[in-house]
Design a protein that fits this description.
alpha/beta; 2 domains; 7-stranded mixed beta sheet; 13 helices
């Protein structure tokens, strides 16, 4: 039987293939240092676990409204709005089974087949997958490496604008680079969106994962509230990656459409988890604070370990839990032309598993340098230090 031809345009999250290779290597009796997947091996805060058990005991195990329960929508509206300096009501919030569903539902709500969508590349690969699967034209924009990290390639973004450009996907506090925009850069991007009358999805998955300073949001720049949908997730802030709870937040007309998609796709997000999130967002902040403090310790250990390697120099990112070092000099030393060969060698020779730039969207032809991505969210400080010492030995010989 023939499957749908449109499936040829559907991509995947290729980091999971790296996980499979790491698991296979570990299954042969090898100790693997897992820097490949952005999962979190820190327990979900106990107050959330207790609130979940209580919600189950209280009978919140059936269907609920497709848009989400009213108390959670209200709590998220207040929490997200107050932190970004804007105002939302429950009508601006649609609860989702994780942050990822927001991508496809948002695009399906605002994009017609043939519309062009600007998206970050390197970036989360599901952007590219969903744009193309839904019939859009995926137009990548990239970053410029600087001594302090990565900046948006604003010139490339301007050159990419055409009369068919309809949507901009923006991921401040970015996976995989850890990039964060200055206020000036964010205002420049917002001005382009306004001038070209674009819908914007701001992927705020790592909004709270910031180690210093106050986070910035494009939604509070004048002219942006009415054209912007926020992708919100509980996964990172509360160490709840497997619980699957998030939200789309934005203007009511597009949120109403997303709610209709909810009814068609999954009926509702798990009822009792929603009640637990009311407690999580309103309750004790010591759990999220402890998660962030532990991630900061891991970041500092990972940055130090990488900078000890001859040929690598990387700044400590202010947000996320990813490092994206330039390994061009390492590639030259090892005699590799494909960065995935370096990845495979690191696994089999040093027992270190990581992703490469190729796992985060199709590289564009103008790219010359090579990068790898290391996630430190699922590996302890002692394992980071031990693993990067092994990686240093492999990279330098």
């Amino acid at each position: 039987m023939k499957l749908a031809s449109q499936l040829d345009k559907l991509g995947t999250e290729t980091a999971f293939a790296v996980s499979a290779a790491a698991a296979e290597w570990a299954g042969k009796g090898n100790k693997v240092y897992p820097f490949h997947l952005g999962d979190i091996n820190i327990p979900t805060p106990e107050n959330i676990v207790e609130a979940t058990f209580k919600a189950i005991a209280d009978g919140y195990t059936g269907y609920c409204a497709g848009a989400g329960i009213a108390p959670l929508r209200a709590v998220i509206a207040e929490d997200v709005g107050s932190k970004r300096g804007v105002q939302y009501t429950p009508a601006n919030v649609s609860i989702q089974p994780g942050g990822k569903p927001v991508i496809g539902k948002f695009l399906a709500a605002v994009m017609d087949p043939g519309d062009e969508v600007l998206y970050p590349n390197p970036g989360y690969p599901i952007y590219e997958s969903q744009i193309e699967y839904l019939g859009g034209m995926a137009v990548p924009y990239g970053y410029v490496e600087t001594p302090s990290g990565f900046d948006l390639d604003m010139d490339a973004i301007r050159r990419s604008m055409t009369p068919r450009t309809r949507v901009l996907i923006y991921n401040n506090y970015q996976n995989p680079t850890g990039a964060h925009s200055s206020r000036q850069e964010m205002e420049e991007l917002a001005q382009l969106a306004i001038e070209h009358d674009l819908w914007v999805m701001t992927d705020d998955a790592y909004y709270e994962m910031r180690y210093s300073g106050e986070p910035l949001s494009i939604v509070n720049i004048p002219g942006m509230w009415e054209r912007t949908v926020i992708l919100y997730t509980c996964s990172k802030r509360f160490a709840m990656t497997g619980w699957r709870c998030g939200a789309a937040i934005g203007p009511q007309p597009v949120i109403d459409v997303i709610n209709k998609f909810n009814t068609n796709a999954e009926s509702c997000t798990t009822h009792f988890i929603q009640w637990a999130m009311v407690d999580a967002i309103n309750g004790d902040t010591s759990g999220p604070d402890a998660i962030l403090a532990e991630l900061r310790r891991r970041r500092d250990a990972a940055v130090a370990g990488l900078n000890a390697i001859d040929g690598i120099s990387i700044a400590a990112p202010e947000s996320t839990f990813y490092l994206f070092p330039n390994v061009t000099k390492i590639m030259e030393r090892k005699g590799f032309t494909d960065v995935n060969d370096l990845m495979r060698g690191a696994l089999t020779q040093a027992n270190v598993s990581f992703c490469t730039r190729k796992h985060f969207g199709r590289p564009v032809t103008s790219e010359k340098d090579h990068y790898i991505r290391l996630a430190y969210s699922g590996i302890s400080v002692p394992m980071i230090e031990e693993g990067l010492a092994r990686l240093k030995e492999y990279f330098e010989n």
